[in-house]
Amino acid sequence: MGHTSLEKIIALQKKTSQIRNLCILAHVDHGKTTLADCLVASNGIISSRLAGKLRYLDSREDEQIRGITMKSSAISLHCTTGGNDYLINLIDSPGHVDFSSEVSTAVRLCDGAIVVVDAVEGVCPQTQVVLRQAWLENIRPVLVINKIDRLIVELKLTSQEAYAHLQKILEQVNAVTGTLFTSKVLEERAEKNAEAQSIRTENDSGDQVYDWSAGLEETDDSDLYFSPDRGNVVFASAIDGWGFRIHQFAEMYSQKMGIRFWVLLKTLWGDFYLNAKAKKIMKGAQSKGKKPLFVQLVLDNIWSMYDAVVTTRDKEKVEKMVTSLGIKVMPRDLKHSDPKVLLSAICSQWLPVSQAVLSMVCEKLPSPAEISAERVEKLMSVGARRFDSLPEKTQELKKAFLDCSADETAPVIVFVSKMVSVDSKALPQNKQRPLTQEEISQRRELARQRHAERQAANQSAESPGSADAGDALCAQTEALSVKTAVEEENKEHFVAFARVYSGVVRKGQKVFVLGPKYDPSLALRVLPEDCSVADVLPSVPHMACCTVDSLYLLMGRELEELEEVPSGNVLGIGGMEEFILKSATISTSPACPPFTPLNFEATPIVRVAIEPKHPSEMPKLVRGMRLLNQADPCAEVLIQETGEHVLVTAGEVHLQRCLDDLRERFAKIEISASEPIIPFRETVIRPPKVDMVNEDLGKQHKVAVIHQVKDEQTKYHEGVQVDSTGLVTLTTSNKMATVRVRAIPLPEEVTRLLEDNVELIRTIEQFSLLAWEGKTLEINQKILENIQDFKVKLESTLQGHKWRGAVEHIWTFGPRRCGPNILLNRIEGYRRPSVWQCLEREKEIEKAETTAFRDFDNSIVSGFQLATLSGPMCEEPLMGVCFSVESWDMMISTPLTQQDSIVEESHLQSQIGEYSDVHVSSTSSNRSRSRAETAGGSLDCYGPFSGQLIAAMKETCRYAFQAKPQRLMAAMYTCEIMATAEVLGRVYAVLSKREGRVLQEEMKEGTDMFIIKAVLPVAESFGFADEIRKRTSGLASPQLVFSHWEVIPSDPCWVPTTEEEYLHFGEKADSANQALKYMNAVRRRKGLYVDEKIVEHGEKQRTLSKNK
To answer: Does the record carry Hydrolase as a key word (predicted)?
Structure first.
């Protein structure tokens, strides 16, 4: 097919039913970009000879050098199948785990996906991730099994063995899809059962019959799985340019053999063989030892082709094949020294991969008009909000989504998934275009005039001074214009990567830009009815009005300017950088809700502090980091309390790319990045039962510990007492308040539960804060149900005597009121509004009358928040710690009138004598307040005393933490490595050197590859991938994904205490302590005191060899 004109693509954009929006998804190095090259070559954009070598959609220099895709990029292709013209909006996405956020941005804009699987490696970790992402976005996948040539050339399998291998790969892919489907059905079934249970309890009468079916039997999953006879699987070798569906062979053989097409289609894949005598297709090839039909009619032909062209290089056989296939091969291809060139020339004509893939895409993937109602509701329901709970006008927009109409009356709905940074030279308006004949003649005339003027000026010798002045002025103006032109040229432009879901977007059109936190119900209350973007409107949070500057057709490395784009198309929108940070929803209707946030698989965990080489260039760095934050969907930019500019990325490769972008594109200055800032967490554990040499800790040692604690009492400052059980008592410096706190380690399940429900905890705390201020927060039923489930789970995990009633006594969570630590209220008689008050709305009014917040309640909470935000070991946040406030007593003297702070002490004493002391104990907060008020004074909860109480609470929590066995928690990566048997030992050596722990090792069936699953501390992961590749000569490459936090078993503050430990470790105990090493590194980075000996031996260095 020749090159498609822009006019043809614009015409196809208007036919919604013939548009296909799809992305290519796969594990790294499975051949996505090579396949994309073959599809691009089919449109004449690149030469078919360069397909697979050029990697056209990898437009960045670092992508070409590394050989991996880092940014998802789109291109529009034209395809003709079955007499119809189709427009294919193709998005190529990265496979590397560090760039999985780019996959999320691509998947959101598509209706279908091509999942590519390597025929040798099979289903890899990232294949499972992309299948899950496609499932979560409700998009339909089709399968391409790529690199089948490797089975012939590298593994040297026979066609029969290759068939068995391909069957296994298909089973693996279907197993992943089946797991996702089963989990969804079971989830829906559980919801139905819960609803049925609630109805049953309401109308409880008669016997109960339980339905044991899981719901899997009734649910139709026939269109879910990949099967060659359904036409949703292509077998291909993109690098050699061939690919096929069994439809092509069924069509071919139905004419040759006289067997009906649909019979061949059903039997070409499966346990069927051809009985030559009876000329019938029979079942049971495996049991009868016969060749399956797929091997006999399909694979044998391909194997013999490779044998003739690549292995034996039999020219006669090749010529026979070329003649029988009826294709033309150029003489230079026949004579080429590389057999792959000839192979590619034959196969790309016989079984062109682009034809097979594009015909499958057009037949099997849905058009934008076929979007499902379930997907629309999912996109419109932000957070835990149900579609039913959205305003009526918003619900009416569902019809606009489903119609996907390009009418004038249809509301415009566009979703921007990311902002793409584009160099100003790449914009169509700045691109050099070929000049027409008229323009050439005009420029020639202008040049002649200028030349004539210059000559006239040179010849006129009457006023030479004025001529010089004129020349100088011209030069100055020219220099100024060049400077502004260069500045304009260097400016970074952003193009919004988007898709139109409804209506027509036009250049110069006014639209609403809706941020991710926009609430349509609030906007509809504030804005007048039937308002439009052109009206003067009151400001609404997270909503802005703007004009669409320019529209672009995305063509890989190039952009083409458009005047309008109808619904169902992928496009680029210019001039949105001022209004959109990373993603947004654009609409002409204020009732439109923001789309649900993108599902990012990778968590940003790798941090570096960045500073410019020259301090004067700081403003450029700040601007550059702002641009980087906008251009990268996953990168985060923070300014810490210390003033450091911190960049947070998903991994080492992602970090390197971000730093390169900062240097070369966004800041354009020299920068220096710190060593990666490794995050740690601090926690406490239950007292260990064995010592460091695995001896039972006897009574003798326990006595020693108690003595040790008594000795340590002297270390604490005045007013702090720590008893043997770890209860810490601290009195404020003015002796007016005493707090007793105990630290308790939380069970691991509870910590995980708190981590997974951060959003719910945030909602609970928000409700409590607003209730304290006398306001209410509207929470929909779905969130309330989730909070109730969360509470029930907490109660079930916090079992045992010491946790009895703990859930009801939760005071707050921390740090930042939503972290994995708990503050418990164990103060006798102090009843404060429950943290779960959002679940008890009926009792709320009643409670407000009888109980009010204690004046200094917030001081205790603030102290706890500060303590959990930075622990005593190395100022890192705490995790999995529960602080129980056992008692809290206050003695407050309130003078009659508010006096100046500088009052004579004697005068103050006489005033205190006049009025009786107010003793605020834990049992009588309201009574004490009323007594203070009747005395004519008032408790100042914002005065200096509240600050002292915050500091006291913080210190008490820190001492309580130190009174227990404390440990560091390290962030852990899960690491999946594919390696051959010869290099397995070297892989293990690198893992053990870097404190890694192997969880599982299994051999991949049918290959000599091993899959090793391990966990590795993030702190040890830098340079890990490079070292593995060096040590294994490139035969193994790891995939690192952040997994969890894990307690480092060694105690960073450990010193030998028992006799056995002294014997084993010596008095100095200076053997390597991993936790101490990490702790000291963090303390050194933060400028905290590090307890280490700078000089080991004070004497002068002596030589040990004898003097000669």
So the answer is: yes
